[in-house]
């Protein structure tokens, strides 16, 4: 048997769309159907170039801030969440808002509000400048400080070391976040944990699947956009887990043939904002290079779904024929 014959793909499961992304994308699609184009969307609805372009073709207009939305128009807030200031600004401009913030991000916002009400200093582990971190910080700007990694714990200053709690962005590396929490706890032994994990099920499940397959992989390819936090983390997890190389690509056309030289096993996965059609494109391309055996590595079964935002559900219900 030649090396080419032994070429295979390990395909991570779960991968791709999570419940929060699915809900956000369907929200924009349903809003376009219900109210007609254009529908404005603040920021990328999810961090994926393909998804954004497809929705743009259907009449969505993506803006950075609500002041770019004409008064009275409809604006959808992305899955990453927004700060209360953004809601206030939208109200001032009399925009009709549909909030597609993932319920698991909303959960973190609520924890921030509760800790702030208890007048605690809150350490938010996350990436400065990421939309989710800006949204969560905006819930309690006087109480929250952002820490990116264990190395930054030294510089944290609080009012009362016995009254500190931590929260995190939902899409971080589980292992690195644990290290940051350990460093925080060394500094603040009475550190209070959030009531449940902030890193969401989808992030940790996708990381677990990559950890499982990485030791067997000469190369891991993660399909995802480079502004997608959870996708970038999957590359890091693959390398930490023992893969010889790992790359993030937006779509199959960006795969470089040179990566496949001397490679027998390629691991494939995708970030939580990636439609599976992009993974199937990559598998086709890999098959053309002799990687035509695909073995799924399943580490968890996901069944979670979220209902659409209530403001949209209300209008959809009103349109239903009587008695339906
Ligand atoms: S990655 Fe997690 S928090 Fe983010 S949208 Fe998906 S389910 Fe929600």
Query: What would you call the quaternary organization?
Result: single chain
- Which range does the strand content fall in? 15-25%
| Strand ordering within the main sheet | 10-9-11-1-12
Structural class call reads: alpha/beta
Domain count: the total is: 3
- What order do the helices and strands follow? EHEHEEHEHEHEEHHEHEEHEH
Compute the average pLDDT. Answer: 96
CATH class membership of the largest domain: Alpha Beta
* CATH superfamily (homologous) name of the largest domain: 4-hydroxy-3-methylbut-2-enyl diphosphate reductase, catalytic domain
* Name of the CATH architecture of the largest domain: 3-Layer(aba) Sandwich
Name every ligand kind in the structure. iron/sulfur cluster
Characteristics:
324 residues, alpha/beta, Cobalt-precorrin-4 Transmethylase, domain 1, Rossmann fold, five-stranded parallel sheet, four-stranded parallel sheet, 10 helices, flat, binds iron/sulfur cluster
Describe this structure in a few short sentences.
With 324 residues, this protein is an alpha/beta fold. The protein has helices at residues 19-35, 49-57, 84-92, 103-117, 131-137, 174-187, 201-213, 229-240, 276-288, 310-319; strands spanning 8-13, 39-42, 60-63, 74-77, 96-99, 121-125, 144-147, 164-168, 219-223, 246-249, 265-270, 293-298.
